[in-house]
Each structure stands twice: as structure tokens, then as C-alpha cells.
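Protein modeling request. Please complete all fields; requests missing the sequence field cannot be processed.
Requester role: graduate student
Desired output: 3D structure, C-alpha cell encoding
Chains: 1
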Amino acid sequence: MKNTIQKFILSIGICQLAGIIGALFNSSSIKTWYVTLQKPTFNPPNWVFAPVWLTLYLLMGISLFLVLVSKASPQLKQTAIIFFAIQLVLNTFWSFFFFFLKNPFLGLIEIIVLIVFIILTVIWFHRVRPVASILLWPYLLWCLFAAFLNYSLWQLNK
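Delivered output (158 residues):
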């Protein structure tokens, strides 16, 4: 039981930590560089992003936990977790490319690669535990929206 609680806390914590690291990359640019960009009409207000990402990282953490405690084979779980880890690192690096380097084009390339790894994670999580896969759908949908937003920002500001 104690081990299960530790896995739950660790799963949530790792995902939230990725968000915190990403926020460190964008904190200096949001109130300076980002506000100067031309934005499409569908660009959400800045206050929307924090609660959305907190929720998505929570769902990702729960999803990871469900995979960790599943009764699937260790090899299957390991492959799923590797894809999850890759997409989580890519998620963090999007903020580096887009905000820290102030480069929407590099951010766009990176988010496309990220979406590929999210899809791979969804597929592998489904093989381990379908509900874990379902919990990642809002994240995938948000990242698809973010990619379109990223593309639009790049086009409007090149």
C-alpha cells in the first residue's frame, strides 16, 4: 500500500515538475517578448494556460501511475514508460524553443515531434491499461490546438 501511494505521488510530481521547468523557460518572455507578438483571434488569454496545464499534468501523472501499477508485462510497461518519458522531455523543451529562444519556428518543429510521441504514448498506454490512454486524450487535443496556435503565431510574426 505504501509503495502504491509513493508511486502515485511520484507520478504526479514528475509531471508537475516538467511543467515547472517549462515555466522557468517562459517566465521571462511572457511579459516582454510574447506580449509584442501579433496573435490570431483564437489565441486564449494568458490566464487560461496555467490552469489548463496544471490539469493536463495531473491527468498525465494519473495516467503514468495507472501504467506503473498495472499487471501488464514488464516489457510492455517499460516500452510505454519510455515513450511517456520522451514526450515529457519534449513537452518541457517546447517552452525552451518557443519562449526562451523566442523562436516560434523551432517551437513548431518541436511540437510536431512532441505530438508524434504523445500519439505513440497513447497507443502504448492503451496496450497496458486503456483508461491510462484515455486520460491522455485531453493532452493530445490541447497540444494539437497549441501546434495550430504556434503555427499561426509563426506565420503572423515572421
